[in-house]
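TICKET #2291
ISSUE: user wants both folds in one file
ATTACHMENT 1:
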Amino acid sequence: MDPFEVLGLPRRYDVDLRVAEKNHRELSRVLHPDKYASGTATERRDALTKAADVNEAWRIVRDPVRRAEALFTLEGIAVGETNEPKPDPELLMDVLEKREALAEAKVAGDLSKAWALIQQMTERMKAIEAELARATRLDASLLPKLGEMRFCRRFIEEAAAVAEESVGPVEALVPPRANPKN
């Protein structure tokens, strides 16, 4: 399945997510199974299959990593950690250092340090996304960026879990305020 085609989008990394969401909503409305309740079994099955494809296409396109994976796959490039080049040693060292800093922040209960680490990795992820967005197509030379995105995402998820453990799920979504006394 080509998620870009399903949602009527150009096949590129830099998609307008507002347009993608609008297309998803419109297609979901048109293909809603209730509209085909009085149709034949084939019509109901086809509508359900198409609705499922639309939902899966939206999940893929809105997720930066899955969107990149889809584009590489559509270019005939195998993705997955076993198919991609080994990560750059510098990246591995940086992630290791950040994980150690996160562990220290967890032990110390230093939520602001966890947030700072999340911000650093979020900025790195945004830089990778910007690089992929500038490419006219994703070719094998950009495949290491996909692995780097995965490392960033995993770290952000781990750091968010540390923040959530410290303050709870709702409060973890809001960065702590700077201490006005410092």
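ATTACHMENT 2:
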Amino acid sequence: MKKELLISVIFLLIGINASYSQSNGNVNMKVEEQQQAHYTGGDNAFYKYVYSHLAYPTCVKGKYINDNVSISFDVMPDSTLQNFVVLKDVECNIAQTIIDIIRPLKFAPSIQNGTKVKENVMYSFPIRIKN
């Protein structure tokens, strides 16, 4: 009987020690926060903003253009946008008009391991043009 009680107490102590070690390890673990750079209102809000501010150049008035304009840009750690690159444009340099619209916007920067990433992040947005 004493032997069984002693074995039970040993297993109980081992279990408590393992449980304490695991919980202690979790407390000391650094929480790794990850986030991709994004427009703070979300993609729908981004597109809504662009289309509500888009005034087509005179050279496309009356034309039907069903195509994409693709623009990439860097989202900097301070939330500003830089290094715009036109990947695909349509008539009358509409891509530049769109760049002028989105240049002043702020995006949430990319975060890795709980800190803002110092590297530039490239984003591309195809934008549908129907006039």
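RESOLUTION: both attachments delivered.
EXTRA DETAIL ON ATTACHMENT 2: The longest strand covers residues 67-75.
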